[in-house]
Predict the structure.
Amino acid sequence: MTDEASTPEGVSSRVAEFVCGLAEYGGLTREQAYRLRLATDEIATNVLQHGYRGPGLLDLCGGVEPDRVWVRTEDEAPPFDPRDHDPGPLLAQDPITRAAGGLGLVLALESLDEFEYERVGDRNRITMAVRRGRNGGGGGPGHGAGGRAHG
């Protein structure tokens, strides 16, 4: 899916639909599907808000393998590895008085079983995955999903 989105809300609904379909196909539990959707939505939202600072292209694809379901995002925003985000100063502030926000990446990264960032040419590539259970069922090994859509 390639999406040119102008708002985080616009991309969030498309991300949710894509990840939920992939999770169902891969036989993920409700909790596993939620974790993958949460992380993918947070990454996509951050790309628009902080990477592009507005509208921009976001490529999204995913697949089902015997042991995991994965989603990959690619964008042309400035280089940014979410693992480099340091929430320490924010967490040190009093939660009652600090501004809202800033912890989404922490939640996203902690909700995943696997996370990989690469800079490929002029693109950020992020691959996120959750491991499938032994009774995973669904699409079977090596099946992928993706496509092109314009928002």
Remarks:
- The domain at 2-145 is CATH 3.30.565.10 (Heat Shock Protein 90).
- The longest helix spans residues 30-52.
